[in-house]
Queue: 3 jobs
Job 1
Amino acid sequence: MEQQTRRKIKELEVMVADVIYETPDTRTLVLFTGNDSLEYKAGHFLTIAPQQFPALERWTSYLEEVKGKKEPPRAYSLSSAPCEKYLSITVKEERYTPKVTPFPPLLSPILSLRTSIGTRMVITGFTGPYTLPEDVETKTEHILHVCAGSGIVPSYSIIKQSLFTENKLKHTLIYSNKTWVDTIFSQQLLDLQKRFPDNFKVIFTLTREPDKSIFSKNILEGRVSKELILKHVCDLSNQFVFVCGPGISNFEKAQAKANGTEPVPRFLEAALQNLKEIGFSNDKIKKESYG
Ligand SMILES: Cc1cc2nc3c(=O)[nH]c(=O)nc-3n(C[C@H](O)[C@H](O)[C@H](O)COP(=O)(O)OP(=O)(O)OC[C@H]3O[C@@H](n4cnc5c(N)ncnc54)[C@H](O)[C@@H]3O)c2cc1C
């Protein structure tokens, strides 16, 4: 089975057919793939090697020298759903915070903010474990998604695929961001809820929203807590959960080990802890860390 999956992974040259503004630091790149057949599942990702961009050449060489290793390809989940005509990814710009992040980010600034229509690039895809099990409908009727920031991307694809192909699954999405302006796909998610009221519900949680007038039944202030999950998700038994967002990175783990401390939990670890306390077993949870 694994071998089969591996064989399907291939390199494709694509052209950026459209660049869609999502939030101030996030863009969706619609990718034109020619006649290549696109076999992917909702929740899969592709990878993009930074070495292929002439504009990044010196920067990539410099980082490779300083870090003493080749810069690996970066992974991007597909924001399109397999039932849609076009392939797309949605990229959020990573920021450099002096004294906090050791290096300025390499690929995301160029993909999110400096890529224009007509740009060509080579992608490798498609793979990843963040997908619905084949026989999901025999196991559950309800999927819970707990996401933060660009962690919405694979769940957005899964939710669209499920709603547009009229399977019977119901989805509840709890989606955390700093502010409403930062919230990727906010309007598209509200539109989906309006169009599929029986099968899709979205709860937004905002941690640093300055405009208090924005809060409502669906847009809440604060973090994703155990109480919030329990309040908004009925019938927790038998649900599958998809959790995606920033988690502790390998760098943070190594740094904490060197300092003899424990790494500070981020969104992913906090969400998993809440779900565990509520009683979800590991076999009901799929997770993806963007840290
Ligand atoms: C399965 C998966 C799917 C993903 N999907 C998406 C998506 O849909 N959309 C999206 O926007 N992102 C997604 N990501 C994140 C994406 O792959 C990149 O990590 C992100 O875009 C940042 O890449 P970058 O090259 O800009 O930054 P990087 O150069 O990778 O830097 C990121 C951070 O790591 C630090 N860092 C880098 N190298 C080192 C080092 N050697 N030691 C210590 N610290 C270091 C940097 O200082 C910086 O803070 C996904 C990640 C995974 C694993």
Job 2
Amino acid sequence: MPKLANTPTLNNYSKLPISSYRDYLKQHGLVKTVTISYNYLGNDHSITINISNTPCTYGGHRHWWHCPKCGRRVAVLYFNQSYQCRHCIGLNYQSQLQQPVDKLLKRVAVIRERLGWPQGIVNGHGGKPRGMWQKTYNRLVNEHDEIAQQIIERLI
Ligand SMILES: [Zn+2]
């Protein structure tokens, strides 16, 4: 393997968080798949990705991608010639997220507090707090989902 000047991180790949499809999924009910169109090297492609839904304690559902390559249930897919999970890309989370579980739990608690969501990742998503910018909300939810996923993977 060639030696790289910089160790690649997941930041090198464009992200496809399930949370960016929240509104779509809300409108379309409990769909089992989402078809995504994209352009790669000048060619149009489309891929149908399986989705699963797990109910939240406070109503609503939490949605997950199933990695098109390995079938793992994940919150975020990455683009590397095609869509796949971080396990298939073979990279770990960015260093910011490579932290002990207790630190991850603390960060998640801070995010949930800011969002006004009940504590505990098992409670899934709440709504957007009044007065919060959509952009801020999306950023927090994406961070929440990535950390929550890592916590779940470590605890299982
Ligand atoms: Zn995978």
Job 3
Amino acid sequence: MKTVINNVTVLTMDKAENVYKNGYVVIEGTKIAGVGEGTGPQDADQTVDGQGGILMPGMINTHSHISMIPFRSLGEDGKDRLRKLFFPLEREALTPELVRQGARYAVCELLLGGVTSVMDMYYFEDAVAQACDEMGIDAWTGQTIIEMETCDSRNAADALKLNEELIKKWKGHGRIHPVVAPHATNTNGPETLQAAYELAQKYDVPYTLHVCEMDYEMTMFREKYDKTPVEFLYGIGVLGPRTVAAHCIHLSDHDIELFAESGAKIAHCAIANAKSGKGVCRAYDAKQAGVTVGVGTDGPSSGNTIDLLTQLRIIPPLQKTRRHDNTIFSAKETAFMGTIEGAKVLGAQNEIGSIETGKRANLTLIETQSVNMFPIYEPYAAVVYMANPSNVDSVWVDGKQLVKGHKLLFADHLEERAKLEALMPEFRRMSANYRDF
Ligand SMILES: [Zn+2]
């Protein structure tokens, strides 16, 4: 099957930063078979008229807990939501069915928002992997390893076993990529963090955790180890090229040096961090130091949306405000963060993240007919500052079109919602116990 998409502005995000103002892209099977200026070859099985839209690589969400859809808008503005609401409610109310259906619903939102790849960490993660496989999205999935009893594990050792089973089951799948996911620096001791790292090394998969997100985490590490959490991770040997650290709100200059030296990556979750009043990650400083920084949303309960366009819009303003300098952090580099830099965070830059011949055909077409998309002098700025998820017209993953005309082709989000709602009465009843947490 050969498809040609014509009449589009192509933002390739390739190394030469090529932009084709009136361009085309050819898809053959699961791969990109050509890209350039003008009209594509005439011998295609299918020709798509992009109507002057912007065609870009599918966006990459480098940190989420997509199955937390049932928690969205619950306990907003409450103090210490994680420990007082989410942890106990997750332990009490989660089932594999709820996690799986929550993930299916979340993937509807990801795809409709132009996101083609997501890195996820949660409980019953095999159910998340199944849901992502069924829905056709590209997913990096890791079982939460945490030193406490949870809905699916008595302790961290049990969770490590579950994570290893997940890896054995999914390693080698084309779209589902298992990862190792120790929850955070402050919820696991050094032995668990190291055991998880050994597991990631054994199977050569990414290693992801939350890092320097909490004020109390910073105090705890200073008091207990006289180190920052990043210095601590470096010291126990788990900061390396396969490490994806989410949040990194509180980074010292030395921490940034350690990231650059070790090759560890950052998943920047701007909205979740700002909304919870925790602070703004020094993404600009880290990037200047040579650290790879991608974009994450965190769970749908933290930032409330899991698409990337909503995130991209706020990232430069926060960095410009931090430095009182509007000339830094361009729309262009922000768009790169949402695509090829995200691919580098996942270690998948040779497969996805840019529009180049031979790469997997993960593509997002943003239409420019809507009222908010005119005029466009600078397509990167249009993507970052003007577009919203409702402008996403079409999405392809592995060459298969999953969204067309703003609609999912192989699922119906209202049907998925009805199925999720049918599983939620018990969750709703239990959540009422935490109304005044
Ligand atoms: Zn998170």
